[in-house]
Specification:
Layout (H helix, E strand, L loop, with lengths): L2 H10 L2 H23 L1 H32 L4 H25 L3 H20 L8 H17 L12 H25 L4 H5 L3 H5 L5 H34 L8 E6 L2 E6 H30 L2 H21 L17 H5 E2 L8 H20 L5
Parallel strand pairs: 1-3
Antiparallel strand pairs: 1-2
Helix pairs in contact: 1-10, 2-7, 2-10, 3-4, 4-5, 5-6, 7-10, 7-11, 10-11, 10-14, 11-12, 11-14
Length: 372
Amino acid sequence: MKLFPFEFKKMVLSRKFSVLLLIIVACVIALFIRNVAFQPVITENALKDIDDQLQTSDMLLRVHQYKLEEDPENEVEKELKDMLLANINLLNNIKNAVSTDQWQERLIQENALLKGIATYNEAGGEFPLDTSEIVRQYALNEKLLDEHIKPESSTYSMAFPNFMKQVLDFLFHLGAIIMMVILIGDLMTAELEDHSAKFLLTQPLKRRHIITSKFWTAISAYITVLVVLFLTITIIGSIFGNEGTFQYPILIEKNGELAFMTIIEYITFGAIGVSALMITVISLYLFYSLYLKQTVSTLFALLGTLLLGYVATTFISWRFFAWLNPFQYIIPREPLLFQNGTAWYQGLPILFLLSVIFYGLAVRKIKTLRIG
């Protein structure tokens, strides 16, 4: 009996697999339609933010004028007032650049404004913009200008690479785990619950082949879903979206300093991390299923393990722990964007090691498994 082709065919021809693919395709299309519908909102929100900053600046300007009326010789207040007037002028320039879609001029004026706000606050002003936010936005604007790349909305982008990142961010935020739970929810336990495993275990084949076929069936199904996902994004994004560039910079923290990662690096590294975790999840599921023999309890144990592991991750700040922590890829965006004393790939060896261990334990268990 060729178990793998049989198991794989059974999974991909199942109703839940077809429904899952349809849901994925529908969600990608819906997200793109949403981005199209909200294109006017991008400019509206940008202009609203500028108007809010102008309103704040006007309020602060009145405060400085009031203080100067009380003390006309106050040089500090005069200096702060002049700085604020210069910033108001820059805000009006930015507003004009946004309205006329002059993105390079907008970035230049924005960085001049960010410098102006930083100087104003250092001189004693109280403009409500955090220093770290100023530094991060300034660095990103400079990078975009240096690379001659038009800035894209992080929420409603029509550029193909940025749209792909938006979709995959859902995959990187528990989407892959939810998808995998749907795929493998009854991979082994269904046969144990309805006792059809009795027939399988009495066949003239090595029992480890049962685990092997289940293991590779789950991996193959996961790869199939990823292929469908990437094909859907590519077709929709490349035909109906804007060209964009996969070299678009993403701001990250590396060893306490700001650095950049391109979208293609973000997608590649994130996909590697989450896929390695999925392999471990599959092997862990098979291990639990042979001991618990029930779908609900197996899934509960699997999700409980992942939850406890992720919670532990948030409390342990030991840098070397990154080499021992397989749960950091539950949300792989975090180890990608914050590499302070760590590297995004450090958790991969322990993931593959755990996959081998749980796979081996599952093989060992099935050799002695008895079905009552």
